[in-house]
Each structure stands twice: as structure tokens, then as C-alpha cells.
Amino acid sequence: MSLNKVLLEILACPKCKQDIELVGEEEGLKCANCSVVYPIKDEIPIMLIDEAIPVEEWNKGVREKK
Q1: Strand, helix or coil at 34?
Q2: Which CATH number is 41's domain given?
Q3: Which string of b and e fits 2-11 if b means at least 16 CB within 10 Å?
Q4: pLDDT at position 61, please?
Q5: pLDDT, tens digit (0-9, with 9 covering 90-100), for 21-60
Q6: Residue partners of 28: CB distance under 8 A and separation at least 6
Q7: In a domain, 28, yes or no
Q8: The domain containing residue 20 runs over which residues?
Q9: SS3 of 5, please?
Q10: Is residue 65 situated within a structural domain?
Q11: 64 located within any domain
Q12: Given CB 3.0 to 4.6 Å as the disulfide criterion, which of 18, 19, 27, 37 pairs with 33?
């Protein structure tokens, strides 16, 4: 099941309020302005600033914050 297109259009980065984009196979939502990815777990975007993963770590394969 994919994320709702309307939901994706209204979601914004909770830190800077800029647009976000879907990454991978619906694994996360990336804020290019903040250089972070908000993970998607069980089809639910985790839009908490403390849960954001830096893009560098995300690209190295780190999908969950420890």
C-alpha cells in the first residue's frame, strides 16, 4: 500500500516547514533544506525532529536511529 498522494502534498518538514520528498521505496521523507530524512514505519511517516536521520547516514544504509 502506498502513501496517500494528498497526504504527501500537505506534509512539510516540521523543523523548517519546507517541502519534503519521498525517498526509496516509500522508506522515508527527505527535507533537502535540512538534509534529513524522516523515516516511514509501517506506512506511517515519523515526522518528529528527534527521529530525523541525517541524509549522509541514510545514504550509508542506516535506516533506524539508535
Answers
A1: coil
A2: 2.20.25.10
A3: eeeeeebeeb
A4: 82
A5: 999 888 999 999 999 999 999 888 999 999 999 999 999 8
A6: 22, 37, 38, 39, 40, 53, 58, 63
A7: yes
A8: 5-59
A9: helix
A10: no
A11: no
A12: 18
